[in-house]
Amino acid sequence: MVPRRTLPGRLADRPDGTFLDRRIDALSVDDRLVIARDDYFYEPVIEESKGAWIKFDGRWFLNFASYSYLGLIGHDYINHQAQRALERHGTGAHGVRLLAGTLHLHRELELAIARFVGAEDAIVYTSGYMANVATVAALVGPGDVVIGDVYNHASILDGYRLSGATVITYAHNDLADLERALRRAGDAGKLVVTDAVFSMDGDVADLPGILELCERHDAPLMVDEAHSLGVLGATGRGITEHFGIDPARIAVKMGTLSKTVPSTGGYVAGSSDLIFALKNNARGWMFSAAGTPMQVAAARAAVEVMEAAPHLTGELRERTDRYRAQLRGLGFDTLGSVTPVVPIICASAGQAQEMARLCQREGVFVQPIVYPTVPKALPRLRTIVNLSHSVDDLDHAVAVFADAGRRVGLIA
Ligand SMILES: Cc1ncc(COP(=O)(O)O)c(C=O)c1O
Description:
Bound molecules: pyridoxal-5'-phosphate
Order of helices and strands: HEEEHHHEHEHEHEHEHEEHHHHEHEEEH
Strand order of the largest sheet: 4-10-9-8-7-5-6
Shape: globular
Number of domains: 2
Distance between the termini: 38 Å
CATH class of the largest domain: Alpha Beta
CATH architecture of the largest domain: 3-Layer(aba) Sandwich
Number of helices: 15
């Protein structure tokens, strides 16, 4: 059994320490208290995984914390293509993409993504985080305004900061507030950014309304499809397919290769001009090594699988809808979730942690999510459905959640 790397629950007593000692202590003071209370659930060290099951601390758990929405981790064809890339190109990248790092695999992946999401071209970064940070920072700068939903992912927020643009946030999915933000920005250059599916709540951005406002105020829109690729739309093409909207209306289509696509990396798809500009200005792409051959070949193979098996998204939706209806029927509050991210709202952070402990004791792995990741008033268990879960697995989990919910007094 591989031990978890947790820290002691006590601060070292070192008043005469260096600046770095004091800084390290200050950074971890709250988390050490959490560990001391035995409420630290994070970084379980997974030793093995098989489909929906993971093993850590020497025990097997049914995993409700995975983003592998279509259950493609371990898919034979994807593994095979990754192995072929390893045999042909080895493990490393030769450097950054602009110099010696671009393999045929990178361009094949970029063109496959562009075709899949309905764009002229795409750029592949080494993470979704980097795709957001580097793209936002390249597209807006001092004197411009970047406008975003208050629940946007941290990587988008970090892109705002790096850009030096003025930031205006609007209330979650609130069109009237977005319009106020657009008016406030006036004649400045503007970029509006929103997640397509919000990763903590599982709800969907009001794309028709957002696009209409953006077009009226001459503001291009960037959409983060991290949790909608493979999940929304009849064939998994994401939020534009979900609403029946022409993808060309979204100037900057961002997504990750670490969720539905079982690899790591991120992408931006859009016009050829946009991609050319990013490849020569997005610093997180220009000054960081290319993705490895296996990683990129696996992602490309996954796009092929999604094209060849468009029914998977519908199956995921059916299974998720049934599961969510059962939870709601039991009296759980799942907020506005309509996707495989299904939160179970708890009355307090302590109750969310107790629920997680009880579920884990019964072999169902879920994480409590509390402030500051989510608002103080909305602590939760975040459950995530994927296609590795059989209907029996889902029914079993619902029974475990129901039992835990009754024991902590969350449901009757
Ligand atoms: C909405 C959203 N955008 C971007 C990212 C970053 O993607 P990655 O984990 O591939 O770096 C995440 C990751 O969880 C996310 O949820």
